[in-house]
Amino acid sequence: MIKEGDPVPKFEIPDANDKVIKSSDFKGKKYVIYFYPKDFTPGCTTEADEFSRDYKKFQNENIEIIGISKDDVESHKKFCEKMKIPYLLLSDMDSEVAKKFGVWGKKEFMGREYMGVTRSTFLVNEKGTVFKVFPKVKPAGHSNEVLEAFKN
Predict the structure, then answer these.
(1) Among 77, 120, 121, 134, which lies 20 to 30 A Cα-Cα from 105?
(2) Which CATH number covers residue 17?
(3) Is 45 exposed, middle or buried (0-12, 13-18, 19+ CB in 10 A)?
(4) pTM value?
(5) How far apart are the first and last CA of the chain?
(6) Annotated active-site positions, please?
(7) What is the CB neighbour count within 10 angstroms for residue 28?
(8) What total number of domains does the chain contain?
(9) Closest C-alpha among 98, 51, 50 to residue 71
(10) DSSP states of 26-91 as a string?
(11) What's the rounded Cα separation, in Å, for the pair 134 and 58?
């Protein structure tokens, strides 16, 4: 997993409207990149809902929010519409961006092993440097935790 002080890895992947978004689009901006396992699942819905609820607070601090999962563009579009998500959701279908950040790996659920995304969040400053990492996120209350980390 990339660490605090590391530069953000370069990426180019589509958003919910199938527009290609590049890491370089955020040059000179503060932003949050959060990785989550799957649209429409309970934890991911909680996390998306809280970031949506607090979006204006992030905007007031000039902070962008980016959510990334393996879901395809169509799934993201439906998730954004249903959840009224006002920020970017990016589709990392081949897990290349998740691998670059070090959040793709072996997981276990009910005794079954599989490959997947570890729910993780990275806070990035205007220089494109990761200054805070949340490696194993609990969705409830996380948006507030992220906002506080930016303020401190």
Answers:
(1) 77
(2) 3.40.30.10
(3) middle
(4) 0.95
(5) 23
(6) 44
(7) 8
(8) 1
(9) 98
(10) GTT-EEEEEE-S-TTSHHHHHHHHHHHHTHHHHHHTTEEEEEEES--HHHHHHHHHHHT--SEEEE
(11) 17
Residue 92: name the closest of 112, 113, 66 by CA.
Answer: 66
In a domain, 115, yes or no: yes
Q: What is the pLDDT along the chain (152 residues), one digit of tens a residue?
A: 999 999 999 999 999 999 999 999 999 999 999 999 999 999 999 999 999 999 999 999 999 999 999 999 999 999 999 999 999 999 999 999 999 999 999 988 889 998 999 999 999 999 999 999 999 999 999 999 999 999 88
130 falls within a domain: yes
Q: Is 128 left (phi over 0), alpha (psi -120 to 50) or beta?
A: left
Residue in this structure with the two tokens 């799934």, named with its chain if needed:
75
Distance from CA of residue 102 to its chain's centroid?
Answer: 13
User: For residue 9, which amino acid is it?
Assistant: P
Domain with 21 in it: 12-151
Q: Which two tokens stand for residue 101?
A: 């950040």
What does the alpha-carbon distance between residue 108 and residue 115 come to, in Å, rounded to a whole number?
8
